[in-house]
Amino acid sequence: MKNPVPQAASLLLEKLMLLVHVRPLPAGSGGEPPPAPGYYDTSCFKRGDLLEVPRTLFIHFGIYLGENRVAHLMPDILPALTGDRRQIQQVVTNKRLILGVITKTASIRVDTVEDFAYGGSILVNHMDRLFQDQVLSSEEAARRAEKLVGTTAYSLLWNNCEHFVTYCRYGAPVSFQTDKFCETVKMIIRDQRSVLASVLVGLASIVCLGLAPSTTLPTIFIPFFLWMAG
């Protein structure tokens, strides 16, 4: 049987990156430019549809508003620094995004389908099967999204783009990505081999960096915490 600890640690890192919503650099930042307008066939989208864009490490979500417009929540530091709507509406760079995550600042913004999906494939209403009778009317979902457009608080675990779309379409903010992340953390804590791994890492840090509070205290308290919580 494979050791679950390395697999769990890998998944933990993957879900952290997932919740940060790291995405390709936009045009003008050294990355590939976004698809040209008309790249996506929006005739199959209806107002109020929930759109998902699966990436390698995460899924991004939005609510389709019609006329090639998508409302979605993005971490972004700029709304906290300026009220210039022209600057804010520019495609969010990775620097803006990461600073938004750190400062817990975001905006619910409206972009074209091309800027929202950034070349990824789009799934439509894929989560409806999980909520069954809780699906609100398409118009109600779109109205909720439009009402929330603007600056908002951001949390990796408790207020991300998935919470936004599930509130709009199903009436309750839920994030299955957060649930999976928390289950992974729980699995690592419960596996007592994590205690041994943390001790070995701590001892290695002491050997490499020397005996100091910054190396000794974590070596003592992290294994103790894992042991007590496991």
Question: Briefly, what is this?
Answer:
The protein has 230 residues and is of the alpha+beta class.
Strand-pairing-aware structural class: alpha+beta
Termini gap = 21 Å
Series of H and E elements: HEEEHHEHEHHEHHHH
Please count the helical segments.
Answer: 10
Number of strands: 6
Q: What is the molecular shape?
A: elongated
Strand order of the largest sheet: 5-1-2-3-4-6
How much is the radius of gyration in Å? 21 Å
How does this model look, in words?
The chain has 230 residues and is of the alpha+beta class. The chain has helices at 4-20, 85-88, 94-103, 113-117, 128-131, 138-147, 161-170, 176-190, 193-209, 213-229; strands at 50-54, 59-66, 69-75, 105-112, 123-124, 150-153. Strands 5-1-2-3-4-6 form a 6-stranded antiparallel beta sheet. The longest helix is centred in the first third of the chain and has 17 residues, at 4-20.
